[in-house]
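Handout, section B. The chain below has 155 residues.
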Amino acid sequence: MSSTSDATIIHTDGGCLGNPGVGGWAFSLRPPDGQRREGWGGEQRTTNNRMELTAVIRALEHLADDPHLRSGPAELYTDSRYVEQGLNSWLQRWVRNGWQTAGKQPVKNADLWRLLVDLPQQVQVSFHWVRGHAGDEDNERCHELVQAAIAEVGP
């Protein structure tokens, strides 16, 4: 799915059993060397959107912590329109507006969005949407990891 052959390809996913409910997040990184790296975790009581955001945060933290990966381009794929639109369209406006939406309401999950303000600046990353559950191998792998994380945390 990469338009840049030397880019690290990242897929993320998050989900909940109930919303709110037991949640899980996951990421899969494919650096140019092809060595897949994965991370996942979960929380007892959370929301789907929080888990989607947590997956992106954890993936970007992993990328930023690795000197070999952070120096090159990265392309992050999410199946969450909320995350993709937030990162590509809304985030800078929210910061300018003091963490309020265009409707003058407080931004939901602002604590997590605030973490994302600086992380993408530490690495060269572009954000893309991918249709979930449509056969994309890395998206499907992240979904499996999310389900495993939810099962680990348990109801």
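Note. Residues 48-65 form the longest helix (18 residues). Compare this with the example in section A.
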